[in-house]
Amino acid sequence: MAAALLVIGVVYGRAADRTDRTPVPSFDLARYMGTWYEIARYDHPFERGLAGVQARYELRPDGRIGVFNSGTDYRSGRCKRARGKACAGQVPGRLRVSFFWVFYSDYNVMELGGDYDWALVGGGSAKYLWVLSRTPTLPAHTLNRILRLAERRGYRTDRLLFVDQGQ
């Protein structure tokens, strides 16, 4: 009985998740490196209450990627930092990221500006979505285009939290 419920739960959970998290077919890892500003995200505990969120990616000599996230707790004004690591797999645009020892999760670059000036990123499930930019703000027409792309992939953009970048 328990096994049947588990199978039903897994099947139902997958059926309910109709998001397309397929990464971009062409991806230049070296161009993706550098600083990204978080424009919007789905709410999750590890970034809750943070403003001015940034992520910096650095390609290391061993081929791995250093990940450095930072943001300011809007209540206390204290800067919070997280250091992680990532590695590129066989699928272009898909990284495996870890902030907690051996636990890795998917990081899917699903849409990308032609100049690598913005990115739409999804996690390993429909619970995670980020809009990133090389600058603290995006022009309204660019942001609207990204939101439409997210909706076409099955994401609910009304759930996005827009990050205060102090601009």
From TrEMBL:
Pfam families according to UniProt: Lipocalin_2
Gene Ontology biological-process entries: response to stress
Recorded family membership: Belongs to the calycin superfamily. Lipocalin family.
Lipocalin/cytosolic fatty-acid binding domain boundaries: 27-164
Full protein name: Lipocalin
Highest taxon of source: Bacteria
